[in-house]
Structures are given as structure tokens and as C-alpha cells.
């Protein structure tokens, strides 16, 4: 889901981010998954520190995206191009270094709909006995 800081990325940089396949780096852990691929540049290098959500996609000065996960820092100042849908960020944690990741922009409405459908699907599934 593109975020409000997306406007600080030139259109060609946004297209690069959404059209480039990224590879999961060996530098991935519970804090975040560092990705490797074509570097993305931002018009600004730093922002005021602010709260960071699960799945936020930061672009540090080296231009290599980081998808922030469970043990992420609580605040940060790198520009964020958007956030991965929580369902997708959770699936990303199952990937091993060398796996490929692609990003597609979706609207907030579409994100809410996907989360609602996933919730309804999980509620409709019968409980399994242990």
C-alpha cells in the first residue's frame, strides 16, 4: 500500500520499485528483510522519526528496500515508499535468502478487502481437534 511519503520518490523511482524483482538478502531476520535489486532513490534522505508499522518498506540511503517485521524498531527516519499488506509480510517471513519478491501497488480499500476476506475465510474453517 503506497504511503504518504511516496510523493518524495520521483515517478521513475516509483516505477522502478514496482517493476523490479528483488532478492531476499542473507541479512534478513525478525527485525526486517533486506532486499537486493535495483536501487531506489528518494528526493529526501531523512525524515523526522515517526512510528513504524509492521510491513513498512523503508528505503535507506543505499536504495535497497527493507521490509520491517515483528521486531522492528518502533520509530525511524528513513523514507518509506509504502507498506506490505500484513498477510504478505507474514508470508515473506517464510522466504529464504535468494528468494524473489515483487511489489504491486494496491489501494487502501483493496487492502482492507483482502484482510476482510482472509478473516472471513479463517472464521469459516472448522477447528481441528488437537
Q: In DSSP terms, counting alpha (H) and pi (I) runs of 4 or more, how many helices?
A: 3
Q: What percent of residues adopt helix (DSSP H or I)?
A: 25-40%
Give the SSE order as H and E letters: HEEEEEEEHEH
Mean pLDDT rating: 90
Pick out the low-confidence regions.
none
Outline: globular
DSSP, total strands: 8
**Rg to the nearest angstrom?**
16 Å
Strand % is 15-25%
Backbone structural class: alpha+beta
Description:
Helices cover 25% and strands 22% of the residues. It has three helices and eight strands; from the N terminus they run H-E-E-E-E-E-E-E-H-E-H. The chain has helices at residues 11-19, 86-92, 108-124; strands at 22-28, 32-36, 50-51, 56-58, 66-68, 75-76, 80-83, 100-101. It has a six-stranded antiparallel sheet, covered by helices on one side. Strands 3-6 form a two-stranded antiparallel ribbon. Strand 4 (56-58) and strand 5 (66-68) form a beta hairpin. The longest helix has 17 residues, at 108-124. The termini are far apart. The relative contact order is 0.21. The model has no long low-confidence stretch (mean pLDDT 90).
Amino acid at each position: 500500500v503506497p504511503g504518504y511519503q511516496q510523493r518524495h520518490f520521483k515517478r521513475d523511482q516509483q516505477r522502478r520499485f514496482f517493476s523490479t524483482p528483488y532478492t531476499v538478502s542473507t541479512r534478513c531476520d525478525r527485525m526486517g528483510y533486506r532486499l537486493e535489486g535495483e536501487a531506489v532513490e528518494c528526493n529526501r534522505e531523512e525524515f523526522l522519526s515517526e512510528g513504524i508499522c509492521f510491513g513498512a518498506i523503508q528505503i535507506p540511503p543505499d536504495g535497497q528496500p527493507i521490509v520491517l517485521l515483528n521486531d522492528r524498531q518502533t520509530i525511524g527516519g528513513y523514507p518509506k515508499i509504502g507498506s506490505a499488506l500484513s498477510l504478505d509480510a507474514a508470508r515473506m517471513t517464510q522466504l529464504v535468502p535468494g528468494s524473489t519478491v515483487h511489489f504491486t501497488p494496491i489501494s487502501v480499500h483493496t487492502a482492507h478487502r483482502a484482510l476482510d476476506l482472509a478473516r472471513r475465510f479463517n472464521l469459516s474453517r472448522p477447528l481441528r481437534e488437537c
